[in-house]
Amino acid sequence: MPPTPSKRQAIADRERELLAIARKLLTGPAGINGLTMEGLAHATPYSKGTIYQHFCSMEDLLAALMIQPLGIRLELYRKAALFHGGSRERMLALEVARRVIYELHPDFERIERAMNVRAGIINPKRSEVIGRTSAELMSISLGIVREAVARKELALGTDLTPEKVYLALRSLSFGMRHGWETSHTHSAMLEGTDEQLPIQLATIVMDGLGWKPLSRDWDYGATVDRIWRELFPEEARRIGILPRPAS
User: Where are the beta strands (DSSP E) in 34-82?
Assistant: First the structure.
């Protein structure tokens, strides 16, 4: 007999509770080492057997944790891709969206990193959601690069493809933020640097690629200001980039 609506609701509520506690364990001082199935059982009123009814493996638990971050990232990327500007300005809008995620959802990238270093049995439905969402995220970035090539704003050589351009920009942002969090040397070296640095470095890389208009010919600082005001005003106020309206 299938579960009644009230039973299904109780199961869904319990899963949300488990995920909320798992997220706290994962984003705590111990990081990925702080989250285990046994630890989750100890931190909740549920047995390990009950937890396995929801998540078939540790990797499946991480996959469940990853779905919400990916959904929010996709929503921000879709908004960024609609920015009214040239292809390079729209790529900068994606960089701004990444900053929103890093500043307002710091647990998201930690969950993503944990997921990327593990492989195992995952519920097929969760795996399908993650695969589909990840593919759309990459498609948004690649679409902007390909648009730049089509408009002759970016010329690719024989060894440079849209995929390599995408990976260069993605790796720059992701790697820098990861280094900030995990390397004392990087943190000391960049002491006093504000969160604009990944966006500034992305601008330097795009200049190096010859992505037009070059920064000497365009005020990309003004573009970034416009992105915050037009696309992410509430997020900018929460971060402190824009002033909050007077009460």
Answer: none
> Interior CA angle at 177 toward 172 and 180, to 5°?
125
Mean pLDDT of all residues in 112-119: 68
**Domain spans of the chain, in order of start:** 7-54, 66-235
% of the chain exceeding 70 in pLDDT: 88
C-alpha–C-alpha distance, residues 192 and 13, integer Å:
43
> CA Rg, the chain, in Å?
21
- Report, as an integer, the average pLDDT of 103-118: 75
Per-position b or e across 43-81, b if 16+ CB within 10 A of its CB:
ebebeeeebeebbeebbbbbbbbbbebbebbbebbebbb
CATH topology of domain 66-235: Tetracycline Repressor; domain 2 (1.10.357)
pTM of the model: 0.84
Q: Tens of pLDDT along 127-178?
A: 999 999 999 999 999 999 999 999 999 999 888 999 999 998 888 877 666 5
DSSP string of 25-45, one letter each residue: HHTSTTGGGG--HHHHHHHSS
